[in-house]
């Protein structure tokens, strides 16, 4: 796969990427190198990383607990303390090796430590490869509210090695696939068609195109003032559902992609009601996504709590919930106002 140039950093693929990373380390002559991992990536990904990275620099490993529940300020304080104890300075490099939690949190840690040190993202999940590690967003959750604290900061480089996908189970692959479906519906319908029509599809083939789409959008609108909002298709309701299930004692946590898949069904329904999105395509979206992800039980009494959490969405202005909606595939509209009644109807459409 050919390298992709983002606004200030390159995205390199496969084993060539490790040579590029070694070149960066040599050229910048970092005073120290830290690698942030979680329980899973320390076991399954770190050995490959160390085998392929050619450098004589000493690397200090910082390990955090895995899972969205640990994507918070307490974890950041722990990492900052360890880096301080190990003598990190403004010429240090932090390498993030993991999924979206690691890349989001690690980028935030690096961008704020001593007012900012260099970092490199090495995403190891499909979700982080096609979404979280690309685009310069860093951040952490505030309680169950997703990504409420953070800033825009670009890595020096992204190392994208699809071999790490072999460490994932089918559920994690499906989670990342939701973001590829998002790119398909909003920018290149072939991606969605390939996924829904081919159960034996090699998802690796779709990674490069997905990153191209996201990078093109980010180049046009780095700080999400306008067109970048399209990358939130499915996320307004999806984040509300994800946060609600994360916070509920009686619900099993959903993966990010499972929640976004629900959000895309609901927001397709709203698109159909407000913008005339074709009914046959609405039916196609619902049937295809449920075929991939199954049906999650959401009760009528859950709706008000989900909608309350949606009020904290970062796209909202003046207390109004803003949506990205579809006129048709590859034809979207941003900053759409949607009534509470229609949001409730969309959740009912999903559950029926």
UniProtKB/TrEMBL annotation:
Domain annotation 3-dehydroquinate synthase C-terminal: ranges: 176-316
Keyword annotations from UniProtKB, A to Z: Cobalt, Lyase, Metal-binding, NAD, Nucleotide-binding, Zinc
GO terms, biological process: aromatic amino acid family biosynthetic process; chorismate biosynthetic process
InterPro entries linked: Dehydroquinate_synthase, DHQ_synth_AroB, DHQ_synth_fam, DHQS/DOIS_N, DHQS_C
Domain of life per record: Bacteria
EC number: 4.2.3.4
Cellular component, GO, one term: cytoplasm
The protein's role, per its UniProt record: Catalyzes the conversion of 3-deoxy-D-arabino-heptulosonate 7-phosphate (DAHP) to dehydroquinate (DHQ).
Name the record gives this protein: 3-dehydroquinate synthase
Organism: Tenacibaculum pelagium
The gene coding this protein: aroB
């Amino acid at each position: 796969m050919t390298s992709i140039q983002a606004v200030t950093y390159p995205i390199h693929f496969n084993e060539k990427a490790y040579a590029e990373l070694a070149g960066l380390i040599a050229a910048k002559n970092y005073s120290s190198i830290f690698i942030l991992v979680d329980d899973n990536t320390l076991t399954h990904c770190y050995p490959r990383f160390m085998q392929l990275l050619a450098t004589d620099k000493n690397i200090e490993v910082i390990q955090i607990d895995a899972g969205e529940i640990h994507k918070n300020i307490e974890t950041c304080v722990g990492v900052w303390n360890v880096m301080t104890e190990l003598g990190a300075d403004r010429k240090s490099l932090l390498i993030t090796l993991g999924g979206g939690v690691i890349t989001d949190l690690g980028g935030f840690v690096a961008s704020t430590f001593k007012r900012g040190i260099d970092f490199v993202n090495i995403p190891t999940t499909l979700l982080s490869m096609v979404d979280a590690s690309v685009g310069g967003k860093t951040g952490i959750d505030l309680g169950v509210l997703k990504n409420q604290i953070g800033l825009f900061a670009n890595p020096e480089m992204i190392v994208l090695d699809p071999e790490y996908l072999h460490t994932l189970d089918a559920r994690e692959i499906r989670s990342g696939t939701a973001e590829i479906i998002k790119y398909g519906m909003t920018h290149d319908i072939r991606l969605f068609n390939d996924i829904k029509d081919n159960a034996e599809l090699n998802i690796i083939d779709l990674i490069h195109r997905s990153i191209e789409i996201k990078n093109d959008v980010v180049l046009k609108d780095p700080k999400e003032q306008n067109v970048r909002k399209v990358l939130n298709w499915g996320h307004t309701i999806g984040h509300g559902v994800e946060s609600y299930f994360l916070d509920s004692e009686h619900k099993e946590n959903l993966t990010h992609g499972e929640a976004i898949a629900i959000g895309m069904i609901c927001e397709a329904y709203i698109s159909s009601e407000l913008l005339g999105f074709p009914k046959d395509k609405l039916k196609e979206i619902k049937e295809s996504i449920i075929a991939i992800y199954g049906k999650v039980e959401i009760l009528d009494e859950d709706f008000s709590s989900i909608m309350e959490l949606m009020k904290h969405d970062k796209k909202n202005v003046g207390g109004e919930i803003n949506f990205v909606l579809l006129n048709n595939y590859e034809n979207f509209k941003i900053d759409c106002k949607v009534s509470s009644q229609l949001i409730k109807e969309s959740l009912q459409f999903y559950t029926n």
